[in-house]
Design goal:
heterodimer; A: alpha+beta; seven-stranded antiparallel sheet; 4 helices; 7 strands; 29% helix; 39% strand; B: 168 residues; alpha+beta; two-stranded antiparallel ribbon
């Protein structure tokens, strides 16, 4: 059992296919992931990278499982901060299920490191990103970056 | 063997709206009926006053007392389930809604369900299952103006197991 875990569920008025596309399409991602995007061909065994708008790699890893449009598992290591990189690989899972006229998205991000700094950091980021994703799919517009306000 | 816990459940969502509009969506029946499984809400929003969530047929689902209230940013109240007989003997939980500005037209909404008295951890599954559905609806209603049609609530497996055990 993982020692640190973040779990989040959101319901979105969309289809499983549209949600899968939004989670894996680089251009769509840029609009709701606050200028970050991911590169991969999204098949099991392929490499995966998270980059900022300048192309710098923040996280990287491997696609462990890919069952379009229902389940994606990524082995995920942070690269930008050395102390977080030292935690090694975490595991991130998207589970997409139909829920009547809605789609249920469950994101779990876990690490075998106790009190993982990576999991603490992503715990603040995921609700923001997934809220922005839901807005994009339901209204056509992602959220403005809350970190630029306040 | 049942494990007791005082762990809180927390859910955060970001909504394209203003704190005032979000407060209205949380505190008036015209809005809650659109996303809270059809529930209406009644309260005078004063400390010590009652708060009630009612089903469409008028049955009291949840009843509580307002502990803290600072419109349009914060409300905290006790939460006692009246409608489900298996849960009505339980000690009160405490629920709070926090609304913070997070940009020109964005709010950060935080729901916290506290359990001051230890509870069978399987009971927490009710909130962990229900809040994401309710608060996904709150966000959609505020951003799209449309009702959020969620499937009617059915107890998650861990709670059904708890109910079964009670009936033994």
């Amino acid at each position: 059992m993982s020692k640190s875990k973040f779990l989040y569920v959101t319901y979105i008025r969309t289809t499983a296919d549209k949600l899968w596309d939004a989670l894996t399409n680089k251009e769509l991602m840029k609009s709701y992931w606050f200028n970050m995007h991911q590169e991969s061909n999204w098949t099991a065994g392929s490499s995966w990278e998270m980059k900022d708008s300048k192309g710098e790699v923040w996280d990287s890893g491997t696609i462990l499982e890919s069952q379009r449009p229902h389940r994606l598992v990524i082995s995920w290591q942070h690269q930008h901060h050395e102390d977080v990189r030292a935690e090694g690989y975490s595991r991130m899972t998207y589970l997409i299920e139909s829920a009547g006229s809605l789609v249920k998205l469950t994101v779990s991000h876990e690490s075998d490191v106790e009190n993982s700094d990576l999991i603490a950091k992503v715990s603040g980021g995921w609700p923001m990103i997934l809220s922005s994703l839901k807005s994009l799919l339901e209204t056509g517009e992602a959220l403005p970056d809350p970190r630029k306000a306040a | 063997m049942a494990r007791l816990t005082t762990e809180s459940t927390v859910y955060v969502t970001y909504i394209a709206t203003t704190p005032e509009k979000c407060w209205e969506a949380v505190t008036t029946s015209a809005f809650t009926k659109l996303y809270f499984f059809g529930r209406s809400i009644e309260s005078d929003w004063r400390i010590g006053g009652d708060i009630v969530y009612r089903t469409p047929d008028g049955t009291v689902d949840v009843q509580g007392k307002i502990l803290e209230c600072d419109p349009p940013h914060y409300v905290r109240f006790t939460w006692h389930v009246e409608m489900i007989p298996e849960l009505s003997h339980l000690p009160d939980s405490i629920v709070s809604y926090r609304i913070e500005r997070a940009g020109e037209n964005v709010v950060r909404f935080t729901m916290t369900e506290e359990h001051p008295a230890p509870l069978d951890e399987r009971l927490l599954e009710g909130g962990r299952w229900g809040w994401p559905l309710i608060l996904s609806g709150l966000k959609s209603v505020l951003e799209t103006g449309k009702m959020f049609k969620a499937d009617p609530p059915g107890a998650p497996p861990a709670m059904q197991e708890y109910f079964k055990e009670l009936r033994k």
